[in-house]
Amino acid sequence: MSGFSDERVTAVRVRPRRGNLGFMNHNTPLSSDTSLPHTTPQAPPPGGRVLTTAQLRAQGVRPADALAAARPGGPWQQLLPGVFLLRPGPPTSDERLHAVLLYAGRPPLARVPRQGASGRTETGSPYGDAVLTGFAALALHGFSSAPPLLSLDRIDVLVPRTRRLRSVGFAGLVRTQTLPAPQWITGLPVAPAARALADAVADLDSHARSGESDGSGDCETVRRLLTEAVRSGSCEPAALVAELTRARLLGRPQVSGAVDALRAEGRLIAEDRLYRMVREYGLPDPLWNVDLRLPGGPHLGGVDAYWPDQAVALELDTGSAGRLPDGFDETADDWREHTRRREHLERLGITVVHVPPRRLREAMDEQAAVVRTALMASDEREPAAYVMVLPR
């Protein structure tokens, strides 16, 4: 493609092209030779009218020509370094999201095939290794307590720790040692809700510590976000606490009180699902929320449900598989006591069924089958030791 002057940039005729390059239906700075390059990428750019310098070069547009077209009064604009919007006017929220991902992700010019978990061939991310997080990700997850996308001055995106790019304009780079597996929402890679929420809280905390905000409204914002995350089922309390712990935020004043309310909220929701499981799947009515004690002996602890005739106890696990329950540290005395109590009940012949709240939400029928199997197997076991059952 030959060069062009500033006068030719502003006088470019809008001429949609179709065929192999049908996605280039935008104002394109062309010389007197109005033909487009004949090279065809494997897939059109996901951002529509948002393209990088490398993508434009692949279409035969020189970087100098792109910069000339993006000068004031030209048909294009440069949203971020090396990222162009091929039309005038304010960018939409979708175009801003695409621009940040293209700037941060160093995407390939064509999607790279890879083998998916299902065994089918899938294509790699068109945005490289960039993943949206923070308030922008929460808005895409549908959080009503997150600000609208267009109101965000900065869009945060996760990148590998080794990435040398800097935050610039409305692109906020958040470096991380381990990138989470993204969830794809409207064709965009988005961090899981728990990770996005932790990054949003970290952003509020950094603003408060830098003096950019007085922190007066942060506690309420954090509380609303955590409450909505649990009530909507976007994530379990254990996952949220794990992410907040990873980000070293549990000790922050605006977080600690909200986490206590989060745990209470999560437990109420899990108990309600447990009551519903017993009722809907026709399980025998247990004794709810009781303490177990040996006659004249030590206190064995509380359980969420107990079937005395079958010697089956049920406990709601506040942690997911492979994680410690909320509020415990793997070196803490209370966690060791928690484990010791479970083992003691099993030595007394009491079957202890552990039910993760997440499984109650996602597969209630499976959990009901687990409980039913434990109850039916009681006839084949040795009689359990007699224990006193007291209200908790």
Main features:
392 residues; Endonuclease, Chain A; DUF559 domain-containing protein; single chain; disordered N terminus; 3-stranded antiparallel β-sheet
Model description:
The chain is built from twelve helices and 15 strands. Strand 13 (312-316), helix 10 (333-347) and strand 14 (351-355) form a beta-alpha-beta unit. 36% of the residues lie in helices and 17% in strands. Residues 1-44, 110-122 and 319-331 have low confidence and may be disordered. It has 392 residues and is of the alpha+beta class. It folds into three domains: 6-89, no CATH class; 133-269, no CATH class; 283-391, Endonuclease, Chain A, CATH 3.40.960. Helix 6 runs antiparallel to helix 7 (218-231), helix 6 (193-210) crosses helix 8 and helix 7 packs parallel to helix 9 (253-280). It has helices at 6-10, 53-58, 63-69, 93-105, 134-141, 193-210, 218-231, 237-246, 253-280, 333-347, 357-362, 364-376; strands at 50-52, 77-80, 83-85, 113-115, 121-123, 131-132, 155-160, 171-176, 183-185, 188-190, 287-293, 299-307, 312-316, 351-355, 388-391.
